[in-house]
């Protein structure tokens, strides 16, 4: 399979070009990754929470170079929609992807609804509509397995915030077609004593043993636990197979195990929580001990408990493949949105026009009655941070709505860096013209209010003319971070009329993560009033660069 959209990133490329790679293999927030190998193709998915399209699908030939080829959820089904939208931190939690009887399946737990499944014969899509397999509150981190006798099961964790208890794993039998459960949910392991906050179950079968790979100890500080049993219902014995040790990779856990096409090498993909940068994706070598337990990473003291590698030789997949990374920049020369973009809620066709013929994206202003802040707006068009240090620039033109030949007041459009703290560099329609304004909010998740800061008049006319808006992201703080709190980031903003000379604007943003996700950047166009028409923001391009 050839990548649908490939690039070599200017901001982060893990392929060192000498047969080795450096972690992370994807320096972006693909939280809770899981993957499979089908033939000589690898496919990965990850949590997407309330961001739509959801369940990203990534493809690789060598486990190091990945491209984003699609999404499994184009929009949430009606039974899974949340009011008001966006449902920060809700919806699509840790998924598992599997290949069975010629079809690709993804199961995920919505902590407020239950276990949901999507499937397809082509991982690039389209995927069938999501099916509610098991209705329940608090079931998360689901993973299916089809046994040799044709029976199907799903292992899972529990969200304490909904279930009222955590640090346990459960199992439910499913119908062989995987569309609904049979019988009752059963707890198969209690980790309260030895493995608190155990979750993220990924189940496999090897040499007559059922293995469940489960992260324990908390997202940013935990380790990788493996359980095994001869009976799928247990009892399970456990072993810690990877922890941080004296490395700088904190909380190394939660992911999936695959082998190479010849079956001679085993590898494990997992995440590391880097605060405002989200949960980035790492690749570790894996070996099986003579006693039938896996060891992930390097094990210099031979105690069976590995530590993650920073640099390592690439997997031997029989061939060498060119460097490729998920796409970041966008020239908007397609009649569809680029795969890198996600909305903060269930999308509407009325929010945008992908005008490939004119090579631009037009965002129409949208009014969300319940939205008092940008944090509450579902029509933010965002993408993940691709690296620790990068710059993104958008070439835009703002045309506010008119009524009786006069500009409507209140529409606002521009760029934003968004997390619990956020800052927007926006063009705003005011009574006497179009202004460039700074809008900030601190602790949005705790009710923080938006504040308008610096403002400068851009135009007396009904159009802003061409303007370039820029945000520069930089990691600050300790030089050698080893824990999640060590990862800190700042964003500074600037603008230009000619695309060459940029003028600093507004304050410096202390970037914070969002609800279970890293901070994101992107575009928006909003209005505070209801009308039968709107103004718009035209985006000629968005370019993401290292400097």
Kindly state the percentage of residues in helix. Answer: under 10%
**Which structural category do the helix and sheet elements fall into?**
mainly beta
Separate helix tally: 1
Major β-sheet profile: 7 strands, antiparallel
Task: Spell out the key features of this protein.
547 residues, globular, 1% helix, seven-stranded antiparallel beta sheet, 1 helix, mainly beta
Secondary structure elements and pairings:
Elements: E1 20-22, E2 34-38, E3 41-45, E4 54-60, E5 66-73, E6 96-100, E7 103-110, E8 114-120, E9 131-135, E10 139-146, E11 152-158, H1 160-163, E12 168-174, E13 181-190, E14 202-206, E15 209-216, E16 223-229, E17 237-242, E18 253-259, E19 266-273, E20 279-288, E21 294-296, E22 311-313, E23 342-343, E24 352-355, E25 360-364, E26 381-384, E27 390-399, E28 402-403, E29 406-407, E30 412-418, E31 422-430, E32 433-441, E33 451-459, E34 467-476, E35 488-496, E36 503-511, E37 520-526, E38 536-545
Antiparallel strand pairs: 1-22, 2-3, 3-4, 4-5, 6-7, 7-8, 8-9, 10-11, 11-12, 12-13, 14-15, 15-16, 16-17, 18-19, 19-20, 20-21, 23-26, 24-25, 25-38, 26-37, 27-34, 27-38, 28-29, 30-31, 30-37, 31-32, 32-33, 34-35, 35-36
């Amino acid at each position: 399979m050839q990548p649908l959209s490939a690039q070599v990133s200017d901001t982060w490329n893990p392929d060192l070009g000498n047969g080795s790679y450096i972690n992370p293999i994807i320096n972006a927030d693909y939280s809770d990754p899981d993957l499979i190998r089908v033939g000589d193709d690898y496919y990965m998915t990850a949590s997407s929470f309330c961001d739509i399209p959801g369940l990203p699908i990534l493809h690789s030939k060598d486990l190091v170079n990945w491209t984003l080829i699609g999404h499994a959820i184009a929009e949430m089904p009606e039974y899974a929609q949340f009011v008001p939208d966006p449902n920060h931190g809700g919806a699509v939690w840790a998924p598992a992807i599997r290949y069975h009887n010629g079809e690709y399946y993804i199961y995920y737990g919505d902590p407020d609804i239950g276990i949901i499944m999507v499937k397809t014969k082509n991982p690039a899509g389209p995927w069938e509509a999501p099916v509610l397999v098991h209705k329940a509150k608090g079931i998360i981190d689901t993973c299916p397995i089809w046994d040799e006798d044709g029976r199907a099961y799903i292992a899972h964790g529990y969200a304490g915030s909904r279930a009222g208890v955590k640090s346990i794993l459960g199992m439910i039998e499913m119908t062989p077609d995987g569309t609904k459960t049979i019988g009752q949910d059963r707890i198969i392991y209690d980790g309260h004593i030895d493995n608190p906050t155990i979750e993220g179950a990924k189940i496999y079968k090897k040499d007559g043993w059922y293995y469940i790979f489960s992260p324990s100890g908390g997202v940013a500080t935990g380790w990788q636990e493996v359980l095994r049993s001869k009976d799928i219902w247990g009892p399970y014995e456990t072993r810690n197979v990877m922890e941080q040790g004296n490395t700088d990779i904190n909380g190394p856990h939660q992911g999936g195990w695959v082998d190479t096409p010849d079956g001679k090498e085993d590898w494990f993909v997992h995440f590391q929580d880097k605060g405002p940068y989200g949960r980035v994706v790492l690749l570790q070598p894996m070996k099986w001990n003579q006693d039938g337990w896996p060891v992930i990473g390097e094990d210099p003291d031979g105690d069976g408990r590995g530590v993650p590698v920073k640099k390592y030789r690439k997997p031997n997949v029989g061939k060498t493949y060119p460097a490729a990374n998920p796409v970041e920049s966008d020239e908007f020369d397609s009649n569809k949105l680029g795969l890198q973009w996600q909305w903060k809620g269930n999308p509407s066709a009325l929010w945008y026009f992908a005008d490939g013929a004119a090579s631009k994206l037009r965002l129409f202003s949208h009014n969300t009655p319940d939205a008092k802040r940008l944090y509450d707006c579902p029509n933010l068009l965002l993408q993940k941070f691709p690296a620790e240090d990068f710059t993104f620039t958008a070439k835009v033109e703002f045309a506010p709505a008119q009524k009786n030949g006069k500009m409507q007041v209140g529409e606002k459009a521009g760029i934003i860096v968004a997390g619990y703290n956020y800052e927007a560099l926006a063009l705003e329609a005011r009574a006497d013209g179009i202004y460039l304004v700074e809008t900030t909010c601190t602790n949005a998740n705790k009710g923080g209010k938006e504040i308008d800061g610096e403002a400068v008049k851009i135009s007396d006319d009904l159009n802003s003319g061409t303007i370039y808006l820029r945000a520069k992201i930089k990691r600050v703080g300790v030089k050698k971070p080893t824990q999640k709190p060590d990862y800190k980031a700042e964003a500074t903003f600037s603008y230009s009329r000619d695309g060459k000379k940029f003028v600093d604007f507004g304050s410096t943003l202390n970037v914070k993560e969002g609800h279970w996700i890293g901070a994101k950047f992107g575009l928006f166009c909003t209005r505070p009033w209801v009308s039968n028409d709107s103004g718009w923001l035209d985006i000629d391009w968005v370019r993401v660069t290292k400097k």
